[in-house]
Specification:
The structure holds two protein chains of two kinds. By secondary structure, chain A is of the alpha+beta class. Chain A is about 50% helix and about 15% strand. In chain A, strands 1, 2, 3, 4, 5, 6, 7, 8, 9, 10, 11, 12 and 13 form a 13-stranded mixed β-sheet that branches. In chain A, strands 16-17-22-19-21-20 form a six-stranded mixed beta barrel. In chain A, strands 15-23-14-24 form a four-stranded antiparallel β-sheet. In chain A, α6 (about 100-125) packs antiparallel against α26 (about 765-800) and α26 (about 765-800) runs parallel beside α29. Chain B is of the alpha+beta class. Chain B has five helices and three strands. In chain B, strands 1-3-2 form a three-stranded antiparallel β-sheet. In chain B, α2 (about 10-20) crosses α5. The two termini of chain B are about 20 Å apart. The chains are: A alpha+beta, B alpha+beta. The interface of A and B includes residues 9 and 71 of A.
Chain lengths: ~900, ~110
């Protein structure tokens, strides 16, 4: 065995180096291996160089050596734990070194994710309404649709006997339950004086406990509500009236006249339910509502909300298909003169249909008059989900843009890593680790942010959402979402960065795409398309809102106070109350009426079918109009204007059989010539009665502006629904005190309920107001996140072009021209975004406004305003860095030390 | 000479066992030792040996020691405690495998 000389060893080291064997650890090893093998060969009598080449061949020459080196590296790097630690270290150092960009990335993402978390909570709750009912999948509500002449009703109620008849006819129905509501009730326990007003009160069948999952905590679900004058109350109601004892067997008095015995106490109904009754009264016995429920005829009133529980396995669609036959069988028979036939009815273009609404769809898909509570809307669920996704996307785009923009800085790192033997997959893994790290940090901040902001959102959306901190699925979802967003945001930069060719980047040739940044530009455009779209949305909703609030209504809504539930003054003190209150000199006029010209919750309005006197009543000329009872002072208290004729007057004793119509009623009755003096008729009990038209009042808005102004008939009558006062003072508090004093003296123990007409009016547009506010918030968020990205991007470009700016300045460019130069590119992008978002927004605005009969004009100006707003905010954002760059001393950027 | 295909799965076992029996060894020594033990019928190629060694090292089964010999640097491999126990397992696993193979192929080994 011959030993090698140092020259030989040097030769081998250099030669191997030349052949590309450079990896630390591996290189030494191969040298030693080859030397040992060469020594053996030399020992066999070979020349050094021949021996060396012999050995090299056994390694597979240059390519074999390199392959071995590559595989050694690969197998060494497969230990992922070490590499991940390395990736995390590098990522952490990178975040720290570029604190500014990291902050923008994390802040943007955190805001976006926080908004997303909140919206997802909202959407999830909306989608899971009524699911607490264990039999929810089998519960259906019966809806009716009736159309004849110019009348078209879609009702969520049925006539009283429908439930029983359905159950008798269709064996697949396991059980039925009906609800009927008569507004609010004044409630007190026996032996007390103070009444409390309760809003969530309904009369119902005892089967409610078999159908809905109301947990009874006291009493027996088999006997609850089966006895006359029995009542079931919620836990909170029980606590309110019987705080220290069990409520079971105690008495409650409703409206000072109905005496009930509590037979069950049930757990409060969960938030996500389409009704929240606190007091349920039995429909058994001989109280008036119970008697109504026991009627077996009268198919024409649809007062009872009727729910069916189908047997397991029964098909709702199949049952629905049998309903036309059911209508034929019963509705035909019940008609008054017996000449009614379904075929004839349908043949003249009319419609009478029954349908089944699945319980779980009620909250999001049913928005009819007389819902128990105002329901949600599937449109808004879609809308907000989309907005959440977009906001998240905008935040992700920031991340992508900043990563690729800064890639120029990292190109060298990529080059060196590749030369040192990194594979593309290693680099991708590294960049993905980095983005996942950033998103994880962002998610943690987002969670905190969401926690802080949720109370505000709850106020805006009238919800009681909470972050489900106890739910492991929540954390799992967050983790999953974090990883997903990390991948989403990191995948493009990692592909992009890892694709650099080391030769190019180390020489300083960056690929053209880094500089031109077409994709980056496109992404910025996308961000601003969404932002401008949301701004237009926010402006539109707010415009429509202010349009509705400021439109001329046909009456004056300011300075009117309404006293509710005047029936508490029964039997005979309403008139006294009015007269006494009129003595207060702040009060100008007063009126007692069944209805006021705004919609107040829990107060449905009555209507009746009329026809023009002299005509034979047929389905073609019947008109369903609202029927309001008022006193003589109604029109001047609300300051309504007359188109023709006059209002009610005490000078005309015959006004008791007179009517004032609104313009809509006049035109829909098709009254020709002068309507004054003509008359209209209706069935009143068994006989037909007629009223003479003495005046036509100008159309005034008494419903929301989503609807047309409906035909309306105003009659003189004794009523005790509301007492309205018009006052003249800037201090309404005084009026309230004075009126309350009168009330207290006349109705001791009855709650004094009042509201201001303009406030009630505002409440009708709560949902619009909410939408407007939410839109404003989200639009602000979107543009804030987008601008955050833009801010960082300009910082980056300004930094990149600092030498160029220096040279321009040295050659005489002014600060202005350089600011312009830097702003121009981004300005262009925003103008492109404006051009794209314009038509999109226009389409969406028109779609939304279709809901309204009375709508604001959203002119081109609104779009330009939104575009200009986006542009100004963006330019303002850009200006910070561009002015800084432009006013910098060229010496600092050009100095080369 | 045995085919390299057959050797593939047993490479780690061979390396671990040889190191277990001989303590400290360097790459070239391992190839020679294996050649000797197999009477020239198993030739560990360098292309297979070094990736295996580095992989085992990364997994913590081997530790290394570097010695300067004149201009050359020699890297010695020894088993770690974990490596020793694994080496034993691997050998038993392989014997088991041979038994199974012999019954599958219906031949008697040895």
């Amino acid at each position: 065995m011959g030993n090698l000389t140092d020259q030989h060893i040097d030769y081998i080291i250099k030669d191997l180096n030349y052949r590309g064997i450079i990896v630390e650890g591996f290189q030494d090893e191969v040298v030693d291996h080859i030397c040992s093998a060469v020594e053996i060969e030399i020992g066999k009598g070979k020349r050094f160089i021949d021996a060396y080449h012999e050995v090299l061949k056994s390694f597979g020459s240059t390519s074999g050596l390199r392959k071995t080196q590559f595989q050694t590296l690969k197998s060494k790097n497969q230990n992922s734990r070490i590499m991940i630690r390395n990736y995390l270290t590098i990522a952490w150092r990178n975040l720290k070194r570029h604190a500014f960009y990291s902050f923008i990335n994390i802040a943007g993402l955190a805001i976006g994710v926080a908004a997303c978390i909140i919206i997802v909570l909202f959407v999830l709750e909306e989608l899971n309404y009524d699911t607490f009912n264990t039999r929810a999948e089998r519960i259906y509500r019966v809806h009716n649709e009736v159309k004849y002449g110019t009348n078209h009703f879609h009702m969520n109620g049925c006539s009283a006997p429908t439930a029983q008849m359905l159950a008798e006819n269709f064996p697949e129905i396991e059980s039925t339950v009906r609800f009927i509501q008569f507004g609010t009730y004044l409630v007190k326990p026996e032996d007390t004086v103070e009444n409390i007003k309760e809003e969530n009160v309904a009369w119902t069948d005892s089967t409610i406990f078999k159908i809905f999952s109301l947990n009874i905590i006291e009493g027996d679900d088999k006997t609850a509500l089966t006895q006359p004058a029995s009542v079931a109350i919620s836990r909170r109601t029980a606590k309110k009236y019987f705080p220290f004892t069990s409520a079971l067997g105690k008495s409650l008095i409703l409206d000072n006249k109905y005496h009930f015995t509590v037979t069950a106490v049930y757990e409060d109904i969960p938030q996500a339910s389409h009704f929240h009754f606190d007091i349920l009264m039995s429909l058994v016995g001989d109280l008036p509502p119970a008697k109504l429920a026991q009627r077996t005829t009268l198919f024409d009133s649809y007062n009872f909300r009727t729910y069916l529980l189908l047997k397991p396995g029964a098909e709702a669609k199949a049952l629905e298909a049998k309903l036309p036959g059911f209508i034929e069988k019963y509705r035909g028979k019940q008609s008054e003169n017996g000449t009614f036939s379904m075929e004839k009815f349908r043949a003249s273009g009319n419609k009478y249909e029954m349908s089944l609404m699945p319980l779980r769809d009620i909250h999001l898909h049913s928005d009819l008059d007389g819902e128990f509570e105002s329901n949600g809307s599937i449109t808004y669920v879609y809308l907000f989900s989309t907005i959440a996704a977009f906001i998240l996307l905008i935040a992700c785009i920031n991340f992508m843009n900043l990563s690729t923009a800064r890639s120029a800085n990292r190109a060298k790192e990529v080059g060196v890593r590749k030369v040192m033997g990194s594979l593309r997959s290693h680099l991708m893994r590294q960049f993905l680790t980095e983005s996942t790290l950033v998103t994880s940090v962002a998610f943690i901040f987002a969670l905190g942010l969401a926690y802080l902001l949720l109370p505000f959102f709850n106020i805006l959306s009238q919800k009681q959402l909470q972050l489900p901190f106890n739910d492991p699925a929540f954390y799992l979802a967050l983790l999953g979402a974090g990883l997903l967003v990390g991948l989403l945001a990191g995948v493009y930069p990692s592909f992009y960065l890892s694709a650099f060719r080391p030769v190019n980047v180390l020489k300083g040739h960056l690929s053209v795409s880094i500089k031109s940044g077409f994709i980056r530009g496109a992404l910025v455009v996308f961000q601003f398309v969404i932002s401008i779209f949301l701004i237009v949305g926010a402006i539109t909703v707010n415009r429509q809102l202010s349009y509705m609030q400021n439109k001329k209504l046909g009456y004056e809504k300011e300075q009117v106070i309404i006293v509710h539930d005047a029936y508490a003054l029964r039997p005979n003190k309403v008139q006294t109350f009015k007269n006494e209150a009129l003595r207060i000199d702040l009060i100008e006029s007063s009126s007692i009426s069944s209805y006021v010209p705004v919609q107040i919750q829990n107060a449905g309005r009555g209507d009746r079918t009329f026809w023009k006197t002299g005509n034979e009543p047929t389905t073609e000329n019947l008109l369903n109009i609202q029927l309001w009872s008022v006193d003589h002072d109604y029109f001047n208290t609300f300051k309504m204007k007359f188109k023709m004729g006059r209002g009610f007057s005490e000078e005309f004793p015959s006004d008791g059989s007179a009517v004032v119509l609104n313009e809509a009623a006049v035109s829909q009755f098709g009254l020709s010539g002068d309507p004054i003096g003509q008359s209209i008729s209706a069935n009143s009990g068994a006989e037909t009665k007629s009223w003479t038209i003495i005046g036509v009042v100008e159309n005034f808005h008494f419903a929301t502006m989503r609807e047309n102004i409906a035909p309306l008939g105003i009659f003189l009558g004794n009523t005790d629904g509301f007492v309205s006062f018009r006052f003249r003072t800037d201090n309404p508090q005084e009026v309230i005190h004075a009126v309350e004093k009168v009330w207290k003296s006349l109705a001791p123990g009855q709650p004094f309920q009042y509201s201001f007409l303009d406030v009630d009016f505002g409440k009708m547009y709560w949902s619009e107001e909410r939408l407007g506010k939410l839109f404003t918030v989200f639009a602000t968020l979107a543009i804030a996140i987008a601008c955050l990205g833009l801010f960082a991007l300009t910082a980056f470009t300004a930094e990149q072009r600092s030498k160029e700016i220096g040279i321009r300045k040295v050659l005489g460019a002014s600060v202005d021209s350089i600011v312009l130069l830097l702003s121009r590119d981004f300005g262009k992008l925003i103008i492109i975004a404006f051009i794209i978002s314009g038509p999109l927004a226009w389409y969406a605005v028109n779609w939304w406004l279709k809901m309204y009969t009375y709508k604001a004009v959203i002119g081109v100006a609104v779009y330009f305003l939104a575009g200009a707003l986006a542009l100004i905010i963006a330019l303002f954002t850009i200006s910070f860095h561009s002015i800084k760059a432009a006013s910098a001393n060229p010496v600092t950027s050009l100095r080369n030390e | 000479m045995h085919s390299p295909e057959l050797l593939k799965g047993t490479l780690q076992t061979i390396v671990l066992k040889v190191l277990k029996d001989h303590g400290k060894m360097y790459g070239y020594e391992i190839t020679q030792r294996v050649k000797e033990l197999s009477e020239g019928r198993i030739l560990l190629t360098e292309g297979a040996l070094y990736p295996t060694l580095h992989k085992l090292e990364a997994e913590g089964l081997l530790k290394t020691e570097v010695v300067n010999i004149g201009k050359r640097i020699r890297k010695y491999y020894t088993l770690t405690a974990e490596g020793r126990s694994i080496a034993k397992d691997r050998v038993y696993e392989f014997i088991d495998f041979i038994k199974t193979m012999s019954s599958v192929l219906q031949v008697n080994v040895g």
